[in-house]
């Protein structure tokens, strides 16, 4: 299937193998009390018909959607942003953060438009099929699944750091990773985002409070924990810095991950009670998350300077770090839960699509669901155990998969939606098509260059001995 040609047929209709027949969902479900009753759900292009004998996949309100978006977006990445400012400098670091944030926000908007036009789309794998046929489906499916599960693996690593910090390395780090994996499996097995949204509120509050505690702690302390505790010390604040190409691209890769929640948004919109509220939820999420990022990153870096820790919780001393990680623990588990639940449900939907087992509480339904969740969380466990380098892992995932999915593919999605008439369209359409081609090229560049920088970062961490060994027992709370 050519990449710049939409399928013929009403509303971009897809081949029968790729879609389910669907009824039009009323845009007024939020105001319809009947829509709130479990089981009263119209036939859906992704989940089929729900008759009450199974989970209600379409019951997330717009505020809960915004919270889910925020927590999917704000999590692991924010802990590395202050160190990114030190690498790039405050001015270039803030500019690049705003730039990748703008690109990501536009990609999220395009994702919502694409889902509205093609309601049968549930993931970037479906998008890949529409853009480039079966090869596109395979490439996007692999990138999507690895992106989501490796982020979950980064979350498991962060939880092990939290456990080590809180307990002062009470036991082997490998044990903490196993405990984090088991708890994540239990939470991610919750079947609908509506129910996960309830724990997401707790995760949202815990993350905000914990980061405020660290920011205040660094601000009121005489000096950061990593700085010399006696005598003169120099923050070495970099308004502009001169990093190597690899260092700069690795840092930008971390920024891409911090705003790279786009791959989860197809699934989130699919479970909205009123999908027409998507843009409202997106606007609330992005305004709050980007403001939060800039405020936390710049303030923490200003007070800690070159002695900023990554993750940032280590910047204010042992006591504050233990308190902050204790407060943030629910948020870390929620991040792992979402990034395990979403890819697991994608596999689950594809296995049972078109079958009554997708929406009925049958034996096959439950066995398939638990197997999907278990497979995803076990892969994330392997990632967390085999690559115990927080900054490098975050940057690698953001560059390799985040730039590809959130910038490159979303740019092609816009061209698929609106670019077919570029030859006969006006100057504005031609200019918009050209801009999206440049965005796609920028995404490709960030993917290659950022991966290079992140690999160098991981290699340097292992060569210097500043990290723990794979499946090791050593304390990782002070080495990453």
From TrEMBL:
Subcellular location: Membrane
Region described as Disordered: 1-25
Keyword Calcium applies: no
Cited InterPro entries: AA_transpt_TM
Membrane-related topology note: Multi-pass membrane protein
Keywords carried by this UniProt record: Membrane, Transmembrane, Transmembrane helix
A GO CC annotation given for this chain: membrane
GO MF annotation terms: L-amino acid transmembrane transporter activity
Pfam name, any one: Aa_trans
Transmembrane segments: 88-109, 144-163, 170-190, 196-221, 282-303, 323-342, 363-387, 393-419, 431-452
Domain Amino acid transporter transmembrane: 60-455
Alphabetical list of PANTHER family matching this protein: AMINO ACID TRANSPORTER, AMINO ACID TRANSPORTER (EUROFUNG)
Family: Belongs to the amino acid/polyamine transporter 2 family.
Protein name: Amino acid transporter transmembrane domain-containing protein
Organism listed in the record: Filobasidium floriforme
């Amino acid at each position: 299937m050519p990449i710049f040609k939409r399928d013929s047929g009403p509303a971009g209709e897809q081949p029968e193998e790729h879609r389910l027949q669907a009824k039009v969902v009323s845009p007024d479900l939020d105001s319809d009390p009947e829509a709130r009753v479990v089981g009263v759900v119209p036939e859906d292009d992704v989940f089929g018909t729900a008759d009450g004998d199974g989970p209600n996949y379409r019951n997330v309100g717009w505020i809960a959607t915004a919270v889910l978006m925020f927590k999917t977006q704000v999590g692991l990445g924010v802990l590395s942003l202050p160190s990114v400012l030190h690498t790039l400098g405050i001015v270039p670091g803030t500019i690049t953060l705003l730039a990748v944030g703008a690109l990501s926000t536009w990609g999220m908007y395009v994702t919502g438009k694409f889902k509205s036009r093609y309601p049968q789309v549930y993931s970037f794998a479906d998008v890949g099929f529409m853009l480039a046929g079966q090869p596109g489906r395979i490439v996007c499916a692999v990138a999507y699944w690895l992106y989501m599960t490796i982020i979950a693996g980064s979350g498991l690593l962060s939880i092990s750091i939290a456990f080590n910090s809180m307990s002062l390395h009470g036991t082997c780090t490998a044990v903490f990773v196993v405990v984090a994996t088991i708890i994540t499996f239990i939470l991610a097995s919750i079947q609908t985002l509506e129910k996960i949204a309830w724990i997401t509120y707790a995760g949202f509050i815990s993350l905000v409070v914990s980061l405020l505690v660290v920011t205040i702690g660094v601000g009121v302390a005489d000096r950061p924990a990593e700085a010399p505790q006696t005598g003169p010390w120099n923050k070495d604040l970099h308004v502009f810095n001169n990093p190597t190409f690899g260092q700069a691209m690795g840092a930008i890769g971390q920024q891409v991950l911090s705003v790279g929640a786009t791959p989860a948004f197809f699934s989130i919109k699919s479970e909205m009670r009123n999908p027409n509220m998507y843009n409202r939820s997106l606007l609330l999420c992005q305004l709050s998350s980007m403001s939060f990022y800039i405020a936390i990153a710049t303030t923490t870096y200003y007070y800690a300077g070159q002695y900023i820790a990554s993750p940032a919780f280590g910047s204010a001393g042992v006591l504050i770090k233990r308190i902050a990680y204790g407060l943030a623990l629910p948020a870390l588990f929620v991040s792992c839960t979402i990034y395990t639940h979403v890819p697991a449900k994608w596999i689950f939907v594809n296995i049972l699509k078109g079958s009554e087992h997708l929406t009925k509480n049958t034996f096959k339904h439950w066995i398939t669901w638990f197997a999907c969740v278990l497979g995803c969380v076990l892969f994330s466990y392997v990632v967390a155990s085999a690559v115990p380098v927080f900054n490098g892992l975050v940057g690698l995932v953001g560059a390799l998969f985040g730039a590809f999915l959130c910038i490159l593919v979303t740019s092609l999605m816009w061209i698929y939606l609106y670019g077919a008439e570029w030859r006969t369209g006006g100057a504005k359409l031609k200019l918009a098509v050209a801009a999206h081609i440049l965005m796609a090229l920028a995404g490709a560049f960030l993917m290659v260059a950022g991966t290079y920088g992140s690999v160098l970062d991981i290699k340097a961490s292992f060569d210097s001995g500043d990290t723990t060994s794979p499946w090791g027992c050593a304390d990782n709370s002070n080495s990453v």
